[in-house]
Amino acid sequence: MAISSDRRHYAPPRPTGTTDDGRRAYDSIGLEVDSLDDLIRLLKQDGLPMESFDRLQRALGVSSAELAGAIQTAERTLRRRRNTGRLKPTESERLLRLARLFERAVEVLGSPERARTWMSTALPALGGRSPLDYADTEPGAREVERVLGRIAHGVFS
Asked: Residue 102 is part of which domain span?
């Protein structure tokens, strides 16, 4: 909770991933949309551009093969996507999931460098797997979010 300096007016915190004007921003993949509906429409109809994949790859500091594996896409399929310029909806959704986790890690850990290292480090809390590897499914991604939540609240994880 954020409280204004005179402590009389409650000011709710701005949700992570939104801009001052309420747009949803995913900086690590270069995406900004006006609403959740626009995001869903983009994911379903068009898919994310390959540039989003490339940006997240650079942000995470991983190889194309590693990121392709994390979104459960074969490298050969990824080459075909490069020719069309866009990911399919399921691949786009998985990429967005990883971008959201990376951005949350940056927020919790304080820097992209720390988040990058954390995302690639095997963690006991994840059965010895890295957050990037563990988040290749929705339940795994939710567990990575829980670990980040524990870290944010000072709980050893």
From this structure: 35-152
CA distance 131 to 148: 10
Q: Is 52 part of a structural domain of the chain?
A: yes
Between CA 155 and CA 19 the distance in angstroms is: 29
Cβ proximity of 119 and 102 under 8 Å: yes
With contact defined as beta carbons under 8 Å apart, do 72 and 94 qualify? yes
Query: Tell me: the pLDDT tens digits for 81-96?
Result: 999 999 999 999 999 9
**Complete DSSP assignment for 41-52:** HIIIII--BHHH
Residue with tokens 């998985």: 94
Residue 4 domain flag: no
**Is residue 7's pLDDT more than 50?**
no
CA–CA–CA angle 121, 127, 133 (5° rounding): 50
**Predicted structure pTM score:** 0.82
